[in-house]
Amino acid sequence: xxxxxxxxxxxxxxxxxxxxxxxxxxxxxxxxxxxxxxxxxxxxxxxxxxxxxxxxxxxxxxxxxxxxxxxxxxxxxxxxxxxxxxxxxxxxxxxxxxxxxxxxxxxxxxxxxxxxxxxxxxxxxxxxxxxxxxxxxxxxxxxxxxxxxxxxxxxxxxxxxxxxxxxxxxxxxxxxxxxxxxxxxxxxxxxxxxxxxxxxxxxxxxxxxxxxxxxxxxxxxxxxxxxxxxxxxxxxxxxxxxxxxxxxxxxxxxxxxxxxxxxxxxxxxxxxxxxxxxxxx
Length: 281
Fold this sequence. Notes:
Blueprint: H1 5-15, H2 19-44, H3 60-66, H4 71-102, H5 108-120, H6 123-133, H7 143-168, H8 171-180, H9 185-196, H10 198-213, H11 217-222, H12 230-238, H13 242-280
Helix pairs in contact: 2-13, 3-13, 4-7, 4-10, 4-12, 5-7, 7-10, 8-9, 10-13, 12-13
C-alpha cells in the first residue's frame, strides 16, 4: 500500500462521481420514485383545486379500503398464490438448472430458449390455451391451474438469477468434492450447491413474488371471481373511487416491500447459520 499523499489524492479524485453521473442517477431516481410518491400522495389527498399540491390530507380512504368486502380474502389469496408459485418454481428451476449445468450441458441452449418463450407469449393467449386444453378436466378454472400458469409465466424471473449464480461458482468442483466425501446428488444439491447460490435463489424469489402478487390478466381469465386476488379488487375499485384504489396500490407496494425484506432477512440468517456451523466444525 502506497503512503504517497499525491497518489492517494489522485485515486480519490478518480473515484469521485462526475456531474453527468450524478445527474443521470438523480434522473433515474426521479423517474422511478415519482409515480410511487404520487400514488402515496393521491391516496391521502382530499381534493385538488387548480394547484399542484392537494388542499388537505386524510386517512379516510385507507379506512374504507380496509373495510371493503373481500379485502382479507383477496389479500390471503394473493399471498397464497405468490408463495405457492415461488415454492413450485424453486422445486422445478433449481434442480433443472443444476442438472443442465453439470450433466446435460448440450441441453443448455434449449433451456435458454424455453426460458425466453414466456416473454414472447401474451398472457391472454396462454390463459385461453390452458382453458381450452384443460376444459374437460376438473382442473379447469381452478386455483391449481392458475398456479401452473403463473409458474410458467414467472419461470424466466426465477431461472436467470439461479443460472447466473451457478455460473459464478465452480459447480463441477463442488459436486466432485461432495461426491468424494460420500454425498449423493440430493445431498450435494441441498447442502453444497444451494448455500452457494442462495443470493441467486433469493433474487429469483423476490422477482417471482412481486410479479405474481401484482398479476391480473391470468387470474381474471382463468379463475375470475372464483379465486379473487388483490389486483382484481384494486381494478374493481378504480371504477368506483380512485383514492381508494390508490390506497390499495400503496398497501400492495408495502406488502411487496415487507415480503422482500423478510426474504432477505431469512437469507441473511441462513448465511450466518451456515458460517457458524462451518466455524464450529
